[in-house]
Every structure is written in C-alpha cells, then in structure tokens.
Design brief:
Distance between the termini: 29 Å
Order of helices and strands: EEHEEHE
Strand order of the largest sheet: 3-4-2-1-5
Radius of gyration: 14 Å
Number of helices: 2
Number of strands: 5
C-alpha cells in the first residue's frame, strides 16, 4: 500500500507531501494505481518547481518514496498553493476511494 501524507496550512495552502510504499495492485510496469498516483504527485511537484517565487525542495531517495516541501514563498502564491493542495487531495481521494486497499491519503493541517 502507498501511504501519502499531505500537509496544508489552515487556509488550505500546500506545505508538504510525502509518499511511501508500493500500491501492490499489479506487477511492476502494469500497476495502474502506482502510475496514477505518480502522475498526480509529479505533476503537482512540477507546477510548484516551475513557480519562480517558490522555494521547493524534493527528494526521492529510493523507488517508492517521494517527498517535497515548499519552504518559503511569496504571499502572492496563496491561490497557487491552494490549487496544488486541492489537485493532490481531489486526485488521490478519488484514487483511494476506488482502490482503498492500495493507497491511503492522510491530511495534516498545520498553523
């Protein structure tokens, strides 16, 4: 099972995300759940990294692990950070609703 933790501010702004594990839905290279969650998370990371006014750090230390965090950003990025959090939340919630034995999403709200 893949465990994803999404960390947001009280206002709904993205702060960080970690994903670890393997969905186990199918064999390597044929796992539609893994491909879907990877696409969602890498797209969100790509959007954040292409935002010039954000400082994003990412790490994928081994297969089945990804972590990324926004350290400090301009206040003007509020809407973008909310949108990225919504994108991850909606995409992974739909996936976990359909494949509850393969992916779990947990959200943490911080100050």
């Amino acid at each position: 099972m893949t465990e994803v933790v999404l960390v947001c501010s009280r206002e709904g702004c993205f702060k960080a995300c970690t994903a670890s594990g393997h969905s186990g839905f199918a064999a390597k290279g044929k796992d539609i759940v893994c491909a879907s969650e990877t696409t969602i998370l890498r797209t969100a990371l790509d959007v954040l990294e292409k935002t010039d006014t954000l400082n994003v750090k990412a790490d994928a230390p081994s297969r089945g692990q990804l972590a990324f965090i926004v350290e400090e950003g301009e206040p003007l990025n509020r809407e973008r950070l909310i949108c990225v959090a919504d994108f991850i939340r909606c995409g992974l919630k739909a996936l976990s609703d359909e494949y509850p034995d393969n992916i779990r999403l947990r959200e943490i709200i911080e100050e």
